[in-house]
Amino acid sequence: MDKPVGIIGIGEMGGVFARGFLKSGHPVYPVNREMDYEKVAKEIPDPAFVLISVAEKDLTGALKKLPNAWKGKAGLLQNELLPYIWEAEDIASPTVMAVWFEKKRGRDVKVILPTAVHGPNAQAVKAALDSLDISCTVINDEKRMLFDLIKKNVYVLTINIAGLKVNGTVGELWENHRNLAEQVAGEIMDIQECLTRGELPREKLFEEVIQAFHKAPEHTCKGRAALDRLARALSQAEMCGIHTPVLKTIMGGM
Length: 254
What we know:
By secondary structure, the chain is α/β, with parallel strands linked by helices. The protein has helices spanning 12-23, 37-43, 56-65, 68-71, 83-87, 122-130, 142-166, 170-176, 178-196, 202-215, 226-240, 245-252; strands at 5-8, 28-31, 49-52, 74-76, 95-98, 101-102, 110-111, 115-118, 136-138. The strands form 2 sheets. A 7-stranded mixed sheet has the order 2-1-3-4-5-8-9, sandwiched between helices. A two-stranded antiparallel sheet has the order 6-7.
């Protein structure tokens, strides 16, 4: 039997990974937010991997509580994930994922694109997802992985934020409100450039986001975290000194 895997946050997504790691031969230790992480770390001092699968809004708090013994084994899968988040908590080389499947309560896993994974435990993640027939690609190039993280961010933020204004599906957004989608995506890419301190290949990036639109046109735009995502984007824009008239107009209509 392989080394154990700790999973912090056993919601729908954490549950999928728990099944995958169990099927691929790892004992799994669930850790909820109320538990004492340091105490649990003494019980499993040398895990193969510690996956943090809490929601975006809870990620910083979870990282701050992460024991030093686990920092070199950390795995992150959240939307809106970028290097400044883990670097701020002195996590040097986490395994990171751009997850392109969703799991809703009472529904099967729905795959949009292959999940991209990079880092020291990328192969273990791939083995876990392979065991569940969820497509996954290991990315060896750090720059390409950053591109994939940003692509997922632009996709999620664009459909969620535009969905606050027009509702409907991703297909309807692109078919009937293309100009709005492009405007929102443009402002999100401005913010992503600031947060990553680099210029983005915008044309290629948005081309791949559009490909994701076409892969799941029936996907609902406005998720339950959409308003929180808009508020975070506006806060980040203000921090960066970026003008975001479209995002502000959408927030003004809430």
